[in-house]
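Predict the 3D structure for this chain.
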Amino acid sequence: MAVTLGGMTLLTDNDNEAGWTGTDGPDAYNFAIQGTNSESWQVSKNTTETGTLTKSASLPTSRGVYTVWLASSISALYTNIALELQSSTNNFKAFTIATTTNRAVDGAFRPFVFDYVNKGTPTGTFAPASLTVSRFSISTANINFRAIPNHWVDTIHYGAGHTIGGTTTGDLLFAEAADLDVSSDTFYGILEKFSGIIYCQGDIDLTGTALVSAGETFVFKDTDNGYDTYNLDVSGTVTFTNTAILAAGTINYNFDTSGATSFTQTGGSHTKYNTLTTASGQTMSGIVFQSGGTATVANTIEDSTFNQCGLITVTGTLDGCVINESTATSAVSTTTLAKLVNCDFISDGTGHAVNLGTISSTQAMTWSCTDSGYAATNGTTGNETILVNVASGQTLTINVATGATTPTYYNTGTGTVTVISGAVTVRVTAATVNGTKVEGARVYLKKVSDGTVILNGLSNANGIVEDTAYTYTTDENVTGWIRKSTNTPLYKQAPLSGTITSTGFSTTGVLILDE
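Done. Predicted structure below.
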């Protein structure tokens, strides 16, 4: 198997294309990037020559690029090269391809892209779905040279970019796709490979059933007439390992894996994404997110760094992540602190680490993260760790886990916020002698010193009864019992004992059948 490319449509390969006027016809010198011929014309000194291709096409209307391969043997002499795309209503868009200060067209065939939806100078309302004419014009200064064929246009395509299907033969997804882009019968002009780096001028949708990229560098190009924001979508089964995705210059890209059959990324980076969207069940770890926009995280992202990125909306989990100098008013938006596990928030002196939104009922949350650079006291500075709106009459209790820093907060509501430092987990697991977990067992645990009851409840489906917000001050000896005497099978009462320390308390109550 191998990767496949789709999404781009051929307008002309210019091998004896009959739709041209105002040119010298097919290249007599067998000069082409694709096929055996290209369309050529000669430009004399101090003049403007125009080649007009009358060939209709229905370009995508909401998004797309027009790609063309161009070459010039008098690159030092032209003053301007331009393109006009005209629709059936005689309205058009004009694009400047090259000038005396930007001699982008030279002696080698190179691909140029045109975002005909968002770029170009319009005359009237250009209708992409009814393209009728493509017009290339070349102007020259008053310099003497022989008027022989000196400009060429070869294969032209249109579409949003590539859909990459199939499966990779190795682990170089983007390199394999780039090789297909410039194969002898295509030359789409979307992907180029140079010094091991793959450059892209169009959208990419990864639709294949087993696409793997390991250690690649994939760059969205910043071009004069191309996209300002690209789309990189995953809808198939894709694995990235130590692959770097980035946008060059002033452009950015939307990275969306929400429609993926399966997506995994380990290591690598995403630089200058505009939006990032994930789905539940996807694995992402060890990634550097740099200078990004907004992110919607529905999966678990582990051991990764968000460096100078925008707002991260978390419905999944951030676990062991560093959120460094967010550019947003709040670095993270989430409904519960449980979705932030052992993360480190670093402030640049502005904004909040976490926006919890509105808390409309009394509840407790555990804060297991660290923070630095945020306001040291609670108040209204706009730089506290946690921003929250606790409704009237309600209380939010924030239990600070061992190893976490004590967060400051800004409560915009009239309810109450209580921060309790030193919270640890006290847990008892009910199990049989062979390790089977027992649901519905009664657990009773109290302090030896004063008889204060710590746990008194029934074990869940995992055999657990716990308090995740026990406030540790000093080591505390505990005693108690565990039994199951109401629903069959019945188990005999067994003793419990131990010591709660700064790391909490966890023990297993071993139950024996009461026969």
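The mean pLDDT is 94.
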